[in-house]
Structure formats: structure tokens, C-alpha cells
Design a protein that fits this description.
Elements: H1 3-30, H2 34-75, E1 77-83, E2 90-96, E3 101-104, E4 111-114, E5 128-133, E6 139-144
Antiparallel strand pairs: 1-2, 3-4, 5-6
The structure holds zinc ion.
Length: 145
């Protein structure tokens, strides 16, 4: 452990003891004993610290999730150029893969729906080279795609 962490822990424990002592004196002046009040205050502060800490951890993980959702949202947004179904005018519109998309034509003000189609294609097959022997010049390579 480094010095800063030790210092923070030291100050925290010191403060807790100080506050517990104060409550011990104040409380025992009214009712009960000094140590009774001391340990009750100590325990309350300790439990409070755990609750506060777990709250901080939860808040951090929530904001982390929020960031991930936003990043995903940005990634799923594309801008494409489409012709209006009513007047055939080109429009540039953002689309998102995870929702229904529409756009309003800039030319005729009609609202167009956007339908997306995906299809699978074969990948380009690797180039095969064929060697054909030619007299006097050794060989020549032909590439077949
Ligand atoms: Zn239009």
C-alpha cells in the first residue's frame, strides 16, 4: 500500500474515533455509558461508509452502462442517400439499424418509410495462378480470378 492510501485510512479512522468519542461524551451525559455511545456511533459510521461505498460503485457501473449504450447508439447510426418514393428526389437521411426509420422528403414533404434488405454474398475466391510452359521463354503466368 502506498502512503496516500495509508494517510486517507489513518485520517478516516482518526475522524471516526474522534466523532465516536464526542458522541460518547455527549450521549453518556444524557443517558447510558460512554463506551455504549462510542461503539454505536462507530458502528453507524462504519455501516454508513459501506452503504455509501456500494452506492458509489453502483453509480459508477450505471454510468459505465450508459456510456456503452450511447456508444452503441452512435455506432448503429448511418447516413444514406435515398430517392423519395413519391417524387424521386434524392434525400440524405440518417438511419438506425435498431429501429424503424422514416424520412420526410425535402422536395415534396411526403414521409417515406425505409425498408432495409440484407443479403449474403460469396467472398471473392483466392487467385489461382496457372503456369503454362512456353517454348524459349521459360514460362508465363496467367492469373485466373
Ligand atoms: Zn419527395
Amino acid at each position: 500500500m502506498n502512503k496516500t492510501i495509508l494517510l486517507v485510512i489513518g485520517i478516516s479512522v482518526g475522524l471516526t474515533c474522534l466523532i465516536s468519542t464526542l458522541f460518547g461524551f455527549a450521549g453518556s451525559a444524557i443517558i447510558g455509558t460512554f463506551w455504549g455511545w462510542f461503539w454505536v456511533t462507530f458502528l453507524i459510521k462504519f455501516v454508513g461508509f459501506i452503504v455509501f461505498n456500494s452506492y458509489l460503485i453502483q453509480r459508477d457501473s450505471l454510468s459505465q452502462q450508459q456510456i456503452e449504450v450511447e456508444a452503441l447508439d452512435k455506432l448503429s447510426k448511418f447516413t444514406i442517400k435515398l430517392t423519395c418514393a413519391y417524387c424521386q428526389q434524392y434525400n440524405t437521411t440518417p438511419i438506425q439499424l435498431n429501429q424503424k426509420n422514416t424520412f420526410k422528403c425535402e422536395s415534396c414533404n411526403q414521409v417515406n418509410g425505409i425498408s432495409m434488405q440484407f443479403m449474403a454474398t460469396t467472398l471473392t475466391s483466392p487467385i489461382e495462378s496457372v503456369k503454362i510452359p512456353i517454348e524459349n521463354s521459360g514460362s508465363i503466368e496467367f492469373k485466373v480470378t
